[in-house]
Amino acid sequence: SNDPLVVFTPSGKRGRFPVGTPILTAAQQLGVDLDSVCGGRGICSKCQITPSFGEFSKHGVTVHADALSEWNVVEERYKSKRGLKAGRRLGCQAKVMGDVVIDVPPESQVHRQVVRKAASARAIQMDPAVRLYYLEVDEPDMHEPTGDLERLKRALKAQWDIPEISTEFSSISLLQQKLRAGHWKITVALHKDHSSALPKLIAAWPGLHEAGLYGLAIDLGSTTIAAHLTDLETGLVVASSGIMNPQIRFGEDLMSRVSYAMMNPGGDAEMTRAVRDAIDTLAQEIAAEAGVEMTSILELVFVCNPVMHHLLLGIDPVELGQAPFALATSGSVRLTARELDLRSLPAAAQIYVLPCIAGHVGADAAAVALSEEPGKSDDLALIVDVGTNAEILLGDKTRVLACSSPTGPAFEGAQISSGQRAAPGAIEAVRIDPATKEPRFRVIGSERWSDDPGFADAVAATGITGICGSGIIEAVAEMRIAGILDQSGLIGSAEQVGSPRCLPEGRTHAYMLHDASAEGGPIITVTQGDIRAIQLAKSALYAGARLLMDERGIEKVDRVVLAGAFGAHISPLHAMVLGMIPDVPLDKVTSAGNAAGTGARIALCNVAARAEVERMVGEITKVETAIEPRFQEHFVNASAIPNAVEPFPELAQ
Ligand code: FES
């Protein structure tokens, strides 16, 4: 035909369209990913495009400056009121006049890619469950006595080609007032995920809703709750924040919370209320920080371990404390903020809880699998999410195995005599001179080592307050390297070690890292009890990993990925000196940051990823550490530093 040729970049899609066809229409017909909320009315600006001029030999097109229609009134009005970047046009207003090459900038793509920061990570492809639709609804009149909802549905069909939606009563009651407040112009939010039959009406605003659309990706841990407020149109995290899990007062670790529920009638309900209130508070804080209205937060995705999963959902966790560790459900759970009684969020906000892998391997491990994709790895990867409970995955393209291991809170600085959370003032890195046995260290909040000039000034503001998880790991490993500790983990006396820093403490010894008592600060020591706590934690971690390796029938993994908010700060060398992780070349140990949180973000931004994680979980082999006798054996052997029986040849180098 003689119709002009329209070529879209970066997709390369092309087609011929009659003169006068709006670019948005051409894009929609070709399946080009060009956004629109207002349906081509020139008010939402989601459809912005950049026409290119010149010669495009690759496409066989020469584009003249008049290939698009002149600015019309609607576009002019938009530009004068709101402004448009240079070279940009509104795709719904600009019409095809001749051969043209049209670039769709990333902001105008619904399915844009959000590049993640961590090097190993996959990009997040946007395909959120919630989308906005602007509508002009017919006014009611005496001759046509239809309901508001029916007229709204008619507008959805006519203006957006959406033939049917589902509704809940609560959303219907909202429509009446909003339709009238917006003079029959309204923006509705429809939610449709991988398992919905129909899009569901979940929110409405008078006129064009311009305050955005947000979701929360929540990593609900035993110790902390972390939330990432995510813009569902761009995929960017606009604010992240954390809060202590208030259930700590019912028990530090998961099993003590399960016992609390067993011993105290109503104890599970109490813990459920506490964690929901904390989530509510966190949601409000994070929204306030980012200047986002609570009414714009329409979806929450949760990842958590099985006990937290049950306590969040209000299901008695007692079954998880005893064999056969049956979950109420291992499948994903979909519900609403109203059903979870999250009072600060819109009642119809949608909630998706990732599936669990098994009674001890939760949705957090599933999220790590979604983020790190061990099932797509060519080499054999061991992924360790270090927390109060360690989630461990081992796999490659052929098979993925998973387990969890109760490491306890020592790696997070808890149950350590001078332990504290990772915060300014905490010792985070330690080196000990093997000859003099003298330590030097670094404190969170300063780049300087303690023997650098200016260190005292650099830490004056915070002081030196304690030692955090990564600090204690380095301290114990360095003590072993310097010969202050023997292989069994025993701290030597001042005479044995040859250092006045080895102080007697009861019948054991403690190594003094820093004495701030002259400045009114604490004396920071590593005690024999601290060493034992770290030995227990690292043995549990290693035994879990080793059990998966047995199951797979291998002696060595190809690479190790340390994940978890805290895992990112662990030094691979020190982890290996301790025997926390199996022996691999040091350059094969990488950090994935908070992989569970990333998995939650991926599921929040992309509905296909939800189907993917549900399928993945079904294919993962679960290994139950609690009933496996070899776990005990590995655990005992791993108590030595690095290990009583296993060689660590890479360490020798
Ligand atoms: Fe809304 Fe073009 S589609 S401004």
From TrEMBL:
<dbReference type="Pfam" id="PF14574">
    <property type="entry name" value="RACo_C_ter"/>
</dbReference>
<dbReference type="InterPro" id="IPR042259">
    <property type="entry name" value="Raco-like_middle_sf"/>
</dbReference>
<dbReference type="Pfam" id="PF17651">
    <property type="entry name" value="Raco_middle"/>
</dbReference>
<dbReference type="InterPro" id="IPR001041">
    <property type="entry name" value="2Fe-2S_ferredoxin-type"/>
</dbReference>
<dbReference type="InterPro" id="IPR012675">
    <property type="entry name" value="Beta-grasp_dom_sf"/>
</dbReference>
<dbReference type="InterPro" id="IPR052911">
    <property type="entry name" value="Corrinoid_activation_enz"/>
</dbReference>
<dbReference type="InterPro" id="IPR041414">
    <property type="entry name" value="Raco-like_middle"/>
</dbReference>
<protein>
    <submittedName>
        <fullName>ASKHA domain-containing protein</fullName>
    </submittedName>
</protein>
<dbReference type="Pfam" id="PF17650">
    <property type="entry name" value="RACo_linker"/>
</dbReference>
<dbReference type="InterPro" id="IPR027980">
    <property type="entry name" value="RACo_C"/>
</dbReference>
<dbReference type="InterPro" id="IPR040506">
    <property type="entry name" value="RACo_linker"/>
</dbReference>
<feature type="domain" description="2Fe-2S ferredoxin-type">
    <location>
        <begin position="4"/>
        <end position="108"/>
    </location>
</feature>
<dbReference type="InterPro" id="IPR036010">
    <property type="entry name" value="2Fe-2S_ferredoxin-like_sf"/>
</dbReference>
